[in-house]
Amino acid sequence: MAETARADADGGWKDLIENFTPAFFAFYFPEVYDAVDFARGVDFLDTELRRCAPEAKVSHRQADKLLKVFLKTGEEQWLLIHIEVQGETKETEEEFAERMFAYRYRLYDYHRHRDIVSLVVLTDASPTFRPHKHQHGRFGSIVTFVFPSVKLIDYEPEELDRSDNPFARVTEVQQRYLKLGKNAQTRFDAKLALSRRLYERGHCREEVVGVLMFIDALMRLPERLEIQYRDGIEQIEGELSMPYVSTFERLAKREGLRDAVLEALEARFGEVPYLVREAIEHVETDKRLRELLRKAVAVKTLDEFSV
User: Fold this and answer.
1) What letter does residue 271 receive in the DSSP assignment?
2) How many whole angstroms separate alpha carbon 292 and alpha carbon 147?
3) Which residues, 6 or more positions from 236, have their beta carbon under 8 angstroms from its beta carbon?
4) Angle formed by the axes of helices 184-200 and 205-218, nearest 10°
């Protein structure tokens, strides 16, 4: 096994947004949170986003969600959330902003009557990478597109420590991850320490399991250390009388199957297209994932692989 398995931060972020939607907005975009009537529910429009996404410029290093919500005024609102999950971005600010604009105008082409709000979460380590605007044109004919963003490295430890929002823990995890090198033991120590902190902060069962899954997706370990980590989780649960590990293990097994499908496709065919990755991310049963793994090994071309 490789020193550390491939991180799956994009899938981890998508799961967190879907499972803890109000908390996401309350922590990162409080103005949006205050305006949305979450009691009316949230619809995730993944099919619409896949249809409109400029696939040629989208890699698996981004996590994007399109949500339909209702405002407290009764209006329907679409929210486009773009999460940059690269440790270090290779794009310029203008390239990033242009890609955001491409999402926006493609969605507009399909849905002229929709008012779309674009939001960005930047998880990279660069203090200077802060895209917020795309502008093009000349001779007085100019299009300007501005979008709000949050940068996770900007959050101070004291601010995170004061918050009981699960995304405060997520932000702590992401900040710590950016400082880790490739040493497996260092990664193990950080992973277990962050997991212990999550339990000790008194979050509910769903939040603990959800953030544990994110930690597990982000900080992959060699098998021997992964076993030690699972033992460490059991010990923490015993000390704090919080028996959550069976739920965590079941979900972790599913994530492992999903990774196996992606890695089999990558090994055989190279980069896996965005739409294929998205479809695999939304498979919810172990049985179907095992079927896809067999198919990934058997098909002769990537075109033959269907989810």
Assistant:
1) S
2) 38
3) 195, 196, 199, 242
4) 170
What is the token pair recorded at 64?
A: 């994007």
Domain spans in the chain, listed from the N-terminal domain onward: 1-154
Q: From CA 38, how far away is CA 241, in angstroms rounded?
A: 32
**Strands, DSSP E only, in the chain?**
43-44, 62-70, 76-84, 116-122, 133-138, 141-146, 149-151
State how far the Cα of 91 lies from the Cα of 88, in Å rounded to an integer: 9
Q: What pairs with residue 36 in β-bridges?
A: 71
pTM: 0.79
- Using a 10 angstrom Cβ sphere, with 0-12 exposed, 13-18 middle and 19 or more buried, the burial of residue 254 is middle
Q: What are phi and psi of 69, to 5 degrees?
A: -130, 170
Q: Are strands 116-122 and 149-151 parallel, antiparallel or unpaired?
A: parallel
Radius of gyration of the chain (CA): 20
**Model confidence pLDDT, tens digit, residues 69-102:** 989 998 888 887 777 544 456 788 998 899 889 8
Euclidean distance between CA atoms 283 and 281, whole angstroms? 6
Other Cβ atoms within 10 Å of 56 Cβ, number: 8
